[in-house]
């Protein structure tokens, strides 16, 4: 038997997806601030401290729980959407950038998933959204994006968002996968996670891929994204703050036309 609210859902779209959650009377979904897209009449929206998973913990406990979320770059507050009507009602949450929404039934994964700190989108009420520190020394010193992560605990549905194309890898016992820390979306609690130095003078100085890999050792399941938001933001920033070499040259706009930019 589930202790979290049991919700139905549908995911729409390709590159810019949204998830539609169907709520029975008195059922609640929680979401990050800014994830809301639309909802039916009869759904009540309420701003709450933290994730609302432990109503009995008191104000101080809620404040501590919410404060931990600040370390993962999230807001102190979340939004709860409750069906206060008599029939089924729907509420939808949109992805923040191009990519895929991944539905995770926590009951199927032993009640816990570890995910990138900016990937959580929404969940059924009762799912706890906490913080996961990597305890190994190498991970703590050099982990970068992989050091502080979110843990999703409970037995309900949770939804995370990833950039670009998303695929799954099922690692067998002892099987190891090396991956860029930003490309890691989530993994099951049975995965052993650590950081490994790339090695080699040329790789370190000129590789351009960072100094460290994330290493994941099975058994367990891993979700991987092709376009981390940090990489996308870095490319946009670099493109927007540097002058293109043909601008101001003799060719001028003709140079842009030759490489395709002048045909817009």
Portion of residues in beta strands equals: 35-45%
- The percent range for helix content is 10-25%
Q: Briefly note the structural class of the backbone.
A: alpha+beta
- The parts where pLDDT drops under 50 for at least 5 residues are 139-146, 202-209, 246-251, 257-264
CATH topology: Double-stranded beta-helix
From the N-terminal CA to the C-terminal CA, the straight-line distance is: 56 Å
Account of the 3D structure:
This protein has 264 residues and is of the alpha+beta class. It has one domain (8-243): 4-Layer Sandwich (Double-stranded beta-helix), CATH 3.60.160. Helix content is 17%, strand content 41%. The chain contains 5 helices and 19 strands. Strands 5-6-3-10-13-8 form a 6-stranded antiparallel beta sheet. It has a 6-stranded antiparallel beta sheet with strand order 11-12-9-16-19-14. The radius of gyration is 21 Å and the shape is globular. The protein starts with 7 loop residues before the first strand and ends in a 6-residue tail after the last helix.
Supply database-style keywords:
disordered C terminus; six-stranded antiparallel β-sheet; globular; 264 residues; alpha+beta; Double-stranded beta-helix
List the helices and strands and how they pair.
Blueprint: E1 8-12, E2 18-23, E3 28-32, E4 36-39, E5 43-49, H1 58-71, E6 77-83, E7 89-94, E8 99-105, E9 112-115, E10 120-124, E11 128-133, H2 137-142, E12 148-153, E13 157-163, E14 166-171, E15 176-179, E16 184-188, E17 192-197, H3 201-206, E18 212-217, E19 220-225, H4 229-241, H5 253-258
Antiparallel strand pairs: 1-2, 2-7, 3-6, 3-10, 4-7, 5-6, 8-13, 9-12, 9-16, 10-13, 11-12, 14-19, 15-18, 16-19, 17-18
């Amino acid at each position: 038997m589930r202790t979290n609210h049991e919700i139905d859902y549908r995911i729409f779209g390709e590159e810019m997806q949204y998830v539609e959650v169907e709520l029975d009377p008195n059922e609640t979904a929680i979401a990050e601030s800014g994830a809301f897209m639309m909802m039916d009449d009869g759904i009540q929206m309420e701003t709450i401290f933290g994730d609302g998973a432990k109503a009995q913990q008191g104000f101080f406990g809620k404040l501590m729980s919410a404060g931990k979320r600040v370390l993962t770059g999230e807001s102190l507050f979340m939004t709860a959407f409750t069906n206060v009507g008599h029939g089924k009602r729907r509420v939808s949450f949109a992805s923040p950038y191009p990519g895929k929404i991944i539905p995770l039934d926590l009951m199927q994964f032993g009640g816990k998933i570890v995910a990138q700190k900016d990937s959580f989108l929404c969940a059924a009420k009762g799912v706890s959204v906490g913080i996961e520190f990597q305890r190994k020394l190498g991970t703590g010193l050099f982990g970068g994006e992989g050091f502080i992560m979110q843990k999703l605990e409970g037995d309900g549905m949770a939804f995370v968002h990833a950039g670009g194309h998303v695929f799954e890898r099922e690692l067998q016992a002892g099987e190891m996968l090396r991956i860029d820390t930003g490309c890691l979306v989530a993994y099951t609690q049975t995965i052993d996670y650590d950081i490994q130095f790339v090695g080699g003078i040329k790789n370190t100085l000129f590789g351009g891929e960072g100094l460290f890999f994330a290493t994941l050792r099975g058994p367990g399941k891993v979700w991987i994204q092709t376009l981390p938001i940090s990489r996308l933001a870095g490319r946009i920033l670099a493109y927007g703050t540097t002058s293109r070499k043909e601008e101001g040259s003799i060719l001028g706009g003709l140079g842009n036309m030759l490489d395709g930019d002048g045909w817009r």
